[in-house]
Design a protein that fits this description.
9 helices; alpha/beta; SH3 type barrels; 6-stranded antiparallel beta barrel; 369 residues; Elongation Factor Tu (Ef-tu), domain 3; Rossmann fold; 5-stranded parallel beta sheet
Amino acid sequence: MSKKGRVLVAMSGGIDSSLAAVLLHEQGYEVVGMTMKTWDYASSGGTKKETGCCSLDSINDARHVAVQLGFPHYILDIRNEFGDYVIDHFTSEYIAGRTPNPCVLCNTHIKWDALLQRADKLHCDFIATGHYAQVREENGRHIISKGLDENKDQSYALWGVSQKSLSRTIFPLGKLHKTEIYEMATQKGFMELVNKPESYEICFVPDNDYRGFLKKRVPTLENDVKGGEFVLEDGTVVGTHEGYPFYTIGQRKGLGIALGYPVFVTGIDRKNNRVVLGHKHHLAKNAMRVKQLNLSKYENVFNPLETVTKVRYNDDGTPAKLWQENDEIIVHFHEPVFAIAPGQASVFYEGNDVIGGGWITESFNNDEC
């Protein structure tokens, strides 16, 4: 047994998770590789070649690294848990008129739990992933902070990981830049990883056509929702749409309607199968409610708490005050934020540290902000 301990590394077959395993191996940990099979293309109705983190090629790429370095590698089939929780939630959220974030949900409820359960069975002290983020213990709390490479930072997607899980988590890439990872892989002869294209799509929607996915997942959906009304902010009917689940807050392209000036989706009325259109300024809100919270840096928010708050993954964040009221947080932005979509995750930062996050339930304008 290594003095540093035994660590189970989640290996997707990509360059980041592979180099995470390499680095831990070189640092003296006893490494065990694990590739999780979360879905298969056939079950989602796909017809193209299976690609991405769950493909046979990716599994073989992960195994190749393990063989090269001489540590064991296993495949963990979690398709049932993933489908029942993540894909069902993804589908039901769109049908509810919200915009889901399945990657955050998967990290929070599927991958970390699955890894920890298997880590215990394999007598591993820690688990590790290739995320660009950092974690430390301070004042009895395990705190996630941004990765050093802000262009690759993935702390937003990790706000929901529990304190128990974080206490056993290692992020080997947290203090590195992506360019350094490419250099290391090149020096070590893993050119197949260097040349491998990265995927940015939702893993179970590899063609990025979530509308097509929903139609295949719920065959009656299109007929049930097609032909609803496009309305303006004042209720004026200006056309018909393809069905409210096929639109998202802030959407401008692909609306299939011309009004002579730019319009955006500003609201989704599930009950009446209406999609509300408006000018860009209609998307500006200065407050929102966030529920289903998970706080990491503090056990509770000290009202009011100054933060920089993100409303989506690629958001730079906006200065805001947080007010916690029981099981929800009211966010008061210091300047309006555009296209806040219910169903998305909101993450609160104090400097580089993640205070916590939750799911957006509504946005609004508050005169007191």
